[in-house]
Structure formats: structure tokens, C-alpha cells
Batch of 4 targets.
Target 1
Amino acid sequence: MNFHLNEEQRMIRETVRKFSENELAPNAGEIDEKELFPKQAWEKLCELGLAGLLTAEKYGGMGLDYTTLVLVMVELAKGCLATAGTYSVNTTVQFIIQTFCSEEQKTTLLPTLSSGARLGALAITEPNAGSDISSMTTQAVPKDEVYILSGNKIFITSGEVADLYIVFAKTDKTSKHRGISAFILEKGTPGFSFGKKEKKMGYRGSPTVELIFDSCQVASKNLIKAEGEGFYIVMSALDRGRITVGSMGLGVAEAAYNASLRYVKEREQFGRKISAFQGIQWKLSDMAISISAARLLLLKAAFLADKNMRFTKEASIAKCFATDVAMQISTEAVQIFGGYGYIKDYPVERYMREAKILQIVEGTNEIQRNIIAKEILK
């Protein structure tokens, strides 16, 4: 592994860092408080030309790597987790289309997604199918030149604001995970509607919405790859998604750490700055250690992904560790701020609320530990 960033990576990181500090962070509190989708921030981010970071240049993207994506995701999450989450899901949708779709589907769909003109979302989770994806009951029944899609999905990120959805449904309900298939579904398709919008403790600027399919007709040409390929597509996407979610965790951790560092240098008690107290110093040291370790784990997983090597275990380790670190450091940040940390005048209470979701999405950290155990016990 080369730990030296190239000039392009340094330039992109600095560009996103400035964007995050100037455009995202100042509005993140209001976005959370009012549950506002950060539409203007998303549009400005797309103007930077970064919406198609991983997508090949022939489809309008930048054709860059996961190492660069880690750098971008960390900086976005420092400023606004809702914007980072939107970016993460849109990137995963592009990965699926570029990797598994036909050339016609790629040339039709990727340019608008990679420019940010359209936003993508994934529809996987159901009321009784969370960690156990094979238990999904949404069905896609073939009929003439279409599939009849029936069922519902919950907890869908960007649910009501996305333009294009990759929906996973059973085409063979007797085959468990081997009966899952993937479809491209456009917003506005008859029979496709939105249900409940969830009220969340954090990550409130990212709409989490129920999708309802009431005999929704999906053209057969919108099937991705072939029937029964959906589970493999999901697993491949989740491995990569764990790198981005872990990077979001690192971003939240760094934001909480930076806020703590500024605060202890200003706050005085007992006649001196609280940064002079050993108890505070040890907390900050532990934060710095954990952040450094999380960064290295994420970069290792990204390195393996970029080299097309197997990285399932490394992605789960990185996601699990980095998001646990986000929870630990944001909690310590609230403690360092004391009473001020518990009120909304300071951002650390928001970091603490936001960190929690990162231990749950893209496979809970308990599921990550199951995956890691399976890999090491082979």
C-alpha cells in the first residue's frame, strides 16, 4: 500500500473539504432540525463534477478509485451526514448499473446519474427482511413483456427525492436468496407510490421513506442481468457500501474530535484551560488513536477494492470499527462539553445522534462481526 496521495487526490480532498466547511457545516444543524433534504447542497456538489466519481469517463463520470472515494466521503460527512448519505447511495446505484447492466442500460442511465441530474436509490429492506435479505416478500411476476411488482420496502434512503430506483424482489419465492432479482424502476411509474416517511433521532436531512408497489408494471428490459442474480448483486454492492459508510463514520468521528479539540482549548475551569487536565488529554489521545486506526482500515479495504482483490472481510472490519469509533468519540465529545454538549447550541449532540445510524445501516455491526467470523473460520 502507498500511503502517499497523488496530486489529484490531494486536490479533490481539499476541494471537498472547503466545500464541506463553507457550504455544508453551516447549514447542517438547520437541515437536521427541520428535516430538510439538502437539495441546494447536493446541486452545488454536483456542480463540482464529483457525482460520478467512480463511474467511467465514457459514461460521464471521473473514472476514479475507492481510495479517492474514501477521502471524499470523510470530508462530506464532517460537514453534513445527510449530504454524504445521499452521495453514498447514488454512488452505489451507479456501481450496480456499471457492473451488472447491459450496455444499453449503462448508456441510457449513467450519464444523468454521474452528472447529478438524476438521483438514484436502492430498495432492499422490508418490514420482515432487514439483515435477512432472503426473507423479502416483494414479488415480481412475469407477464408478457413486463413484470408485475407487488409489495413494499421500508427505510429507503432518498426515498421520496430519488428519480431512479434499483428494486430487489422475488421472481421465485421458493428459492430463498437464489430467487431474488433486481429491477430498474423510474419514479412516476403507475402503481409505484410512497408511504410513511420515518421520524428519526438523527440523520434527519436524509428522507427515509416507505415504497409501495401496487401491481406496478416494470418492463422486462429493466431486469438487471438475469432472474436470480439479485442476491449476488446486493452482496457485491454492500461490500463496497460498507467502505463508504465506514468513511462516513470516520467523518463524524473527526468532526466530533475537532469540535472537542477547539472546545478544550477555550473552556476554563479551576483557573486554567481544561486541556491542561490529564483526564481530558487522555480522552483526546484515545480519540486520535481510534481515528488513525479507522483511517488505515478504510484505506486498506479501498486499496483491495481498487486492485480487484477480495475484500469482504476487510470491508466489514473497516465499517464495523469506524462506525463504532464514531459512536465512541461522539459520546466522549458530549462528555467533554458537559452540559453544553447536551444542548443544540453545539453540534456534538447531533454527531452523537448521527453516529448511531451508522452502526445499523449497510448491515448492522453485529452482522459485520458474523461476516468477519465466517471469513476467518474458513
Target 2
Amino acid sequence: MGARKIAIACQGGGSHAAFTCGVLTEILRTKRSWDASEASAQKFDIVAISGTSAGALCGLATWYGLIPNSADPQCGTIDKAIERLDYLWTSFAATTPIEHVHNTSVRELLQLREKGVPLPISNPYDGSGPLILAGLAMLGARQEYLGFPGLLEALCPHFSSIDWPKAAQAKFRFIVGAIEVLSGNVEAFDSEKTLRELGLPSIAKDVDQYSATRWRMLRSLTLAGVAASGTLPEVLPAQKIENLAFPTCAPGKVVKRNGYYWDGLYSQNPPIRDLLSVRQKEDKPDEIWVIRINPQEYYAENPNAHVDDIHDRVNALAGNLSLNQELDHILTINRWIREFGDAHPPLSNCKLVDVRSIKMTRETARRLRSTTKFDRSPIHIAKLREEGQSVARKWLHDWRALGSDFASYPDDARYA
């Protein structure tokens, strides 16, 4: 029985994505255990991972740990990927005394606003942000806590030493979603684009994205691109990436300028269609596992009970809109293949792809709010990580035991 090729897609959601950390950790541990077993039961190989915002951070930690690195011989192993996931969320959580004070203050302010207390709206461009960060640093806040640059550099200290030739051989893809503010482009920072630019073998389709005005762009994978994916416009200035090429209305003509990026919540949460954009059918995943952070369904009888209830629901709807559209497209292709077969174009390079959801328990989903996505307390993060591991442990058992009878999208996106 051949191993199933699995792509994992990680939704964004601030500190709620600690659940994703727990899920990925359990998936990796289970793979290690199953690979070591001689049992003939179904196994799986992870061929790609995509993510947006905090989901992209989880994806980066996993990918960085699993990809060989010339400066760190421990990279390229499941153990390293698990260690990087743990490091990410341990570093992201409030640790020092001033970090605890800051996190508690933010949480209480958000709770006051949730109760209707009028509070001033912060402006990420008013110049006070850098002064506040400098003050927090002087009082003992770590750079990993204060922003993406410090966190990403600590998470991937040898990013520049990734062994790209071996990465090409591994055929393990990582894709990050973001939105370019000025053009409105849906953009993805893609490890396969990096391979192509380095002249190395790539499984991705070769698309001339500058021959006409297009609203979807692929960029090479960088830490700045991962930071761009998590740049909430209400909190941070747009992430600037210098000297990028953008298509114009004239075929083949490009303009060079700085790119400005916001959170991928507004474009792909997370990227899905690029996971299937490969040249050869055998390189496409057999299944896509979506780790959902934003609940599909609403639980209150009246969605207009309070302005913050409305905000919570709008946040969840925005996070699921692009995801469901891309997943529904996969179901359409699946239906065409079953109806017409895949012997002839345009379906000859397509395959049936199962889509499955991994989500929080109903009780946790009902308890969390958009404001708790900013809570970086160790207890909050630890509970979500533990739930992710528990959910994934049972989910993987059922996936193996039930086979093709195991629940799939769209039915498994909702709660029974």
C-alpha cells in the first residue's frame, strides 16, 4: 500500500494558531511512528505545506526543520521540525515580566472595547509605534516578542544556508499567502519559485506572469514574505519589500517598485490552488488537510447582538471566504473527473484530490473571539497547543481506520 501524498494548509488566526502548532506536532510525531512500523496499514508523506499569517509561521517552522541546511545538520529531520514549532510558540508567548504586563494590558484594553468603552484607535503610521517598542525593549522585552524580524531570524537562524539543491530533490513545497496593497494582487511567496530562480529543478508550472496584467503573482520565498503574510493593517505598517517587478497593461512590460503587503487574510487564507499547480500529475497531492482556525458556522441566535459579535463574525467570514472558494473549485474538478474521466484534455493532467478539515472542538470555537487572537499568555497558548495535539491524535487514528469512509469537505467543515 503506497503512502498517500499529503499537502497541509494552515489558516491564520493570531495566537489561535497555537492550535495549528499542536496539530502539526502530532502529525509529525505520528508520521515518525508510522514510518518506523512495519505494519501494512496506510501511511502518508507530506509533500507541501501552505499558510497565512500565524499559519505561515507554523508552516515555516515545519518546512525549515524538514529541509536540509548546510549550516545545521539537524535540519532535514522530523525532530528538528518539532523543535522549531515548539521554539516558535515558546518565543511568541509573553515570557519576561514586562511582556506579561504588556500582554495583560492589551488584553484588558480589548476587553473594555468589547464592552463598548470608547477608546482611541491606534494608527500604525503615527510614529509612536517605534518609540513604544524601544521602551518595551529597554524594560526587558525580547526582540522575538516585539516583532516579526526578531522572531523570524531567531526561528530560522540559518535561512541563508538552506541547501536548495537538496530541497529540490525533496520536492517539499512551502507557500505563503499575502496581499499587495497598491496593486491588489493576490501574491504567494513560494519555495518552488526560489528553485526556479536558482536554475534548479522545480515541480511547479512555469507561468509567464508578466505577459499580461494579472492579479496573482508568485514571488521567491523570503523571511520578509512570511512577515508580510502576518502584517495586520490595524496594528502594523505595510511590510515593504524593495525592488519588485509588477506587470503593466503592455504585454511583457514590467515596472519595478517597492511592494507593500498586508495580511494574507485578505487574499488566501491559506493558499490552496498553488498546491495543485504542478507540471506532472504524479507530483500533485492525493489529499489536502486544512487546519481551520476560523469556524465556518455561527453559534449565537442573533448575529447582531453586539458590535463586537458582528466584528467576530466578519473576521471569521473573511478568513473563510477565499478558502471555501478554492476548495469548492477542487470539488468541481473532482466531479468532472468522475463524470467525464481524465483521459483527455483539459482533465488529463488532473487527479482526484480528497479535502479534509482539522478543526477545534465546538466548545473551544465558541469560547474564542477575535480579541483572544491577540492574547499571548503562556496558559492560553499551551491550552490551544494541547487541544491541537489531542484533536489531531484522534483525527489521524480515524483517518487510518476509516479510509475512504472518513469524513471530508464540505461536511467536515461544520460541527455535527
Target 3
Amino acid sequence: MDIRLTGVTKRFKNVEALSRVDLHIRDGELFTLLGPSGCGKTTTLRLIAGFYLPDEGKIMFGDREVQEIPTSKRNIGMVFQNYALWPHMTVYRNVAYGLQFKKIPKSDWPQMVNDALVKVGLVGYETRYPGQLSGGQQQRVALARALVLNPDVLLLDEPLSNLDAKIRGSVRAEIRKLQQSLGITTVYVTHDQEEALTLSDRIGIMCDGKLIQIGSPHDLYEKPRTRFVADFIGTNNLVAGTVEAVVDDITVITELGTIRGFSHYAVRAGDKCTVAFRPENVEVHTAQSSALDNHIHGKISFASYLGNTLRYEMDHPTGALLKADIKNPLQHEELGWGSDVYFCFPKSAALVIPD
């Protein structure tokens, strides 16, 4: 089931929570709405679900216009942030809860509930209560309850935010494998960029009620169109500047000095821009490296050992703070705080984003 939003706007009193959003979610894909709190992603999900009516625009499920159709008639499955399980009901009763409203004969419930529990790996837990389950198991019960009705669309509103980091990673993988095996159109809401990059076929970045950029995880990471997207997806060093020249590469004048880079977008001399270069593409040297195009001098102000990565932070005399990641800490002699260093990187790692 593909989903289309055309010119969708939603207001709450005098606040425009969503502003003229156009969006096409393809049949069978896992599409993630990603952005900071208050950006409009949950409002978009609730409009798709039918909990809100748009003030402008239309919403299509396939060839059917649905904005005036109630939630119960849209054949969706919904998983909420807090799971919304009934604590006094067993797993079986929680999963079967929606079947009574669809007027499905009780004789069909055992098979349907069992099929749903098979999908989420909880067969044998039918008689347990939510309080007897781990957070990850409760999340899977909520998922089974959404899937038991064989929905056309699955909607997930920050379903992993209540889980600790280790469990979140494993449940995330389970959701992705299940979605791929079922081929069900899924809309996922999160503020966690790692979650979005791991799970999604495509991601829509939202800010202030608008869709800023849509693309695959790879495209958003490698080709951000705006400073906001470059800052929100992954970790980036961002330096404001002005394009000086565009020849084989792009020369940018910044307060840190001249930086040579490239761009996926059209830029001209005189354009204001942002240069983005990621910590994993930066080498740390105690002298300038002639093998690399760009060199920024400063002092180490912080070093954090993360196991597989050693992250340096460098203070520049202008007050700018830059980051560099050493991917093989055991093969690197750690530099002390206050050490004079050069952060060096090739022009192929310096993305110029026009303002």
C-alpha cells in the first residue's frame, strides 16, 4: 500500500505544526520520519493514522482518499511509544484485543493470535501478563497486537525509546527483519539518527513542520542539502565560509583559513556556504601533511576513548571546536591535552553546502 500526502497542513490554534507537506511513501518500504522534538513527525504519523484531520491537503492510501475516513476503517496497525498494553490482561488477550472490534469470530482468534506471536517470536508466552515480561518482550507484544489484524500499513511511534541501548539494538534488528519478510508498508517515527540509518529504506528529515530532505540513509549521510541535515545526520565539523573560486575543486575562505573541497550542488564564486567534513575523514598530525589538501592548526582540548575509536576535540584560536576520530586506537600513541596538532583531510572529504 503506497501512501501520499499532498499539501498537508495541520494547525493547533495559532501554531502551524505541519506546513504544506508533500510526501510519497512507496508500497512495501520502511520510511522513517526523523527530526528533533517538536518538528512535526508525530503529527504527520497521527494524520496518516487518522487521529488528526488535516486543515488543508489530502491523504491517499493507494487510490483511496482517506482524510475523512476514521482510523478504524483505514486497516492500519499502530505501535505506541509506551506500548499501551493492558496490565490486567494476558499476552493472549492483549494481542486479541482488536479482533473483537473487527467482529472476527472468537473461534478464529487462537490461530490468528498464534500466527502473530510466531512472527514476533513469543509463542509460549500467551498466559503471561505484561508485568512478567521484559521491556523488549512488551514491545513485541505491542507489535503482535498491531500485526494480528493483517494491516495494510504499520505505524510505529518511537517504539524503542523506553528500552536500554543494548536491547534497543536487538529489537531494532528484529523489526527490520520482520518488516522485510512481511513486505508491509511501514512508517517509523524517531529522533534517533542511528536508529533511522539502520532501519530505513528512506528517511524524511523534518524541521519546524516542514520536510527538509528525503533520501536513502546513504544519500542523506553523504549528500546533505542543508547545514541542518549535515548537522543532524551523523557527526560533522561545520565551518561557515564564502566560495572564492570554482575550478577543478572549490576554494572556500573561512575563519579557519582556506579550505579546498567539492560539492554535489551548484556553487559560484561569492556564494555563502558551509564546509562539512566528518571526524572519520580527519587525520591528526603533529606537523602539516603534504599528502593531504587541508590543514587546520590548533590544540587538543579533549580526548575520549570509545573502545574502537579515539575521539579528539581540537580548539582553534578562533574558538571553533573540531572533532577527529582515530579508528585504530591501539596503533596510535595518544596525544595529551594541550598538544599542538594539525587536523588534515583531503578535498574529497570537504563537502561544500551552499546556503
Target 4
Amino acid sequence: MPRDYYEVLGVARDASEQEIKKAYKKTARKYHPDLNQGDAGAEEKFKEASSAYDVLSTPEKRRIYDQHGHEGLNSRGFESNFHDMSDIMSMFGDMFGGGFGDFFGGGRGGGRGRRRGSDLEYRLKISFIEAAHGVTKAIKVPRGVHCDTCSGNGLKPGAKPQTCGTCRGQGEVLQAQGFLRIRTVCPACRGRGVSTRPEDHCGDCSGTGKVRRTEELKVKIPGGSYSGLQIRHTGRGEAGDAGASTGDLYVTLQVTAHEMFKREGADVYVTVPVPYPTMCLGGEITVPSVHGEESLDLRPGTPSGDVVIMRGLGVPELRRRGKKGDQHVRLVVDVPTRMGEEEDELIRRLAELQEASVPRKGFWKELLGKLNT
């Protein structure tokens, strides 16, 4: 079980965003791999601190973590750990406005132009019942990955990149505009600080460092999911430049409508037709639910349109572990479209007793006969 994230960063549970950021920066500086070469323990603590900051600096993740801990994050598709160091590098770029050099003060040529891989979105259609109970789906995702032959650097075996002649390996150039001097990314090497000759390009990827591949992935969908919910899979998007992090895959759910059940949040709504005698006299009926058939006792004189709430028969609430919504059952009179002779006579006798106005038997047949003459 991972350590408590507040303990990892050494902050109180009510720490502010700035306090969390400051604590993370201090911890990351202490255990940074470049400052602890060959120390596997320091690298693990560095990753642990980065995972803690990723969760505690994101309001939604922090709220779920405070309520349900690590298991709550995992059950909702939030992966709290990084797959590799490139993911952490990407987080630095997103959260601190630069790479490792910018984060710790000072520059580092040759790395600023490495572009993170693009995120991907996969739209997954699931049924109403699958969304209610949760399901695991296998999907196939085509994406760009690093070339195995050149390990993503775009060079054939034995070839080496050359120092960029435009920026001399710095990845940046100075441009003068009047009295101003502006430092920008080198246009020749895109900030990488190196260049390659066409004859040194890898033949399998044509020097791009990437190839297309379709990979199978299992997506765990939690019970209580809904249309529009996105499940993030870190590092499953497009590969970035060599040394940069891979993008993420976002699986967006599309839940198909059900012919019987409707849903609002975690509550389920269903309309059940009930025979007239049962509505009048009361009795036990069978009611469908997303969990199977349930028994329901009706009181005598139940009016048509009456709604009965069956507690806990809805779908799971994503943000409240172990809690389910309710099922709202709307009861309506089941009116038969065809009746036998005996049923017809009994209904007419009941109408007389209740002084209900109904056409006499054969009325419509006589009326149609007169219209046709």
C-alpha cells in the first residue's frame, strides 16, 4: 500500500496549494536523480513525491483521495503513479513552466525542444447495464510509439547526432528587434541542440523515431459510470520526442439508452403497469431493477401514477464508495386492449355499481352502420 501522500510531502491535510507546491519542490530537489546518481532509493522517493504532488495539486483528485484514499483514486480511473521518468518530466513542464533546468534554476541546453507526445481520445460505447454495474472492456488503440530499432532517436545503429550549427547545441538563439534581444527556440533543431544527416536516419522509421502500432488495452469501467465520463490512462497516447514523455489516452464513455430504465445521477426510474384489481385490492407484484427482479407489496387503493421509492436499488455513486442511489417505481394501471365476453360483462357490471358512464354494448357497431347507409 502506498504511503500517505500528505506524509510523503510533509504537509498537513489542510495545507494550501502554495504550501503543497513548496513542499514538493523541496522534496524533489533533495531526491532528484541527477543529484543522486546511482541511488535507486532516491529515485523511488522522487517518483513517490511526484505522485503525491500530482494528486494533491489537483482539486478533484485531492477531494477523492481525502474521502477514499488510494483505492478511491484507482477505482475512478485516476492513476496516482507515473509509469516512468518521462511522465514526471512532462508534469514539470506543465506545472512549473519548463524542464528540470527551469525547475531547479538555470538552463540546460539541448532538452527544451523535446515535445511531449499528443494525448489521444477513444470513444467507447457501453450498455446501460454495463455502466450501472461496471465492466472491463478490451479496446484496440492505434498510436505512434518509439521505433524499436533506434529507440526513438531516429538514427541508424552506430550513427550519432551532430551539434546544431545554428545554436551551437544550446537549443536557443538570440534575435534582435530594435533595442530588444529576444531568446527563442532554435528554428533549425527545434530546441534539441542537435541535428542529423539524412544518410544517418533509421531506415525503419525514416528518421522520425516513431512507428504506428495498434495495441490492445483493457479498460476497467467502474459501476455508476455515465456518458461523457473520461478514464485516463497515463502514457498510452502518442510517443513524444526521444527523451520526452508520452501523451495520455482518455477513454470517453458513451452509454446507450435502455428501453425500460431511465437514470438521473445514481437514481433509476422505471414505469411498471399493474392490473386494475391489484391496484384496487393490493398485493405483491414483481418489479424489474438493474439488479434483477424485486418484490413489492402494494397497499389497497393504490392510485395510478403513484411512485414508490425502493432504497438502494439504483446504481453506485462514483464519489461515495459503497453507496447506491434509489429506484423510483411509477405504478400505472395496465389496461387490456382485448377482453373476452365474460370480462366485458364483469367490467360493465362494475361500471354500473360505480355509476360510471360507458357506451352500451354494440353502440359503436350501430353507429357505424347508420353512417354507412
